[in-house]
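Continuing the series of single-chain predictions for the mutant panel. This is the parent chain; the variants come on the following pages.
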Amino acid sequence: MDNSELELIVITGLSGAGRTQAMQSLEDQGFFCVDNLPPTFLVKFADLCAQSRGKVSKAAIVCDLRGGEFFSSLSEALSNLEKEGFHLQVLFLDASDETLIRRYKESRRRHPLSPQGRVLDGIQAERQQLEDLRIRADTIIDTSDLSSQQLRSQVAELFGKTQGLGQMAVSVISFGFKYGIPLDADLVMDVRFLPNPFYIQTLRPLTGEHTLVQDYVFGNTMAQEFMEKYLALLEFILPNYVKEGKTHLVIGIGCTGGQHRSVAIAERVGQFLTERQYAISVKHRDAAKNQKGGTAR
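Parent structure:
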């Protein structure tokens, strides 16, 4: 087997962000998985897989801070894998500090970088150590709002049998700026300049998935001109991301509360990209959070 024929995924990221669930999902997809492999053995492991005469065609390895002093060599190991022509993807799992603290409290575990101190101190130290890897990652998944099953499904969607080499999956996420920008967003579009359906009494309880809201959002020349230009931009830049080897792109579209405008735009973007044969998932992170509330959307 040629090195480029081996599909190799390195899973890393913050402790508590879901690396184990991601690995289990890939294992269900037929990947040969190894947990906590020291980075110094990565190249040797990949060579063994490539020499297996087709017995191992796709493999996933979890590398994290449990590797201790060996973990610092991960960036060098990734560079060596690329030099040897392996088809390598780096999956980085992230989550908000609040989410990670809650998960640690629920599990009653200590953070590996702060075994005797505050969990938050360990999380912040780990973020700093992993910053270069996060920048280098091909795919970043923010697991803050995902259950274990949702994370496993998303990983399967990205790396399962339907995701072939050279394809790019696109996740379109609507959100509310009042709840924060998605951690894993590659591109962020702020659509708060569009007229707000929240101020129309009959539209206030609805979301942007409803036809009436969509008709209102797109019912003016400014919105129509914006969509024409924004879709043209996406049509231009996405093929260039594919050429650069990117396998997953997260497009975040935000309005004030994530209920009306961002949802309507995200639906339209998802439809547009689906028609152009991209593997699309559209998610509305905040659409149902404050439908009964009184704060502007």
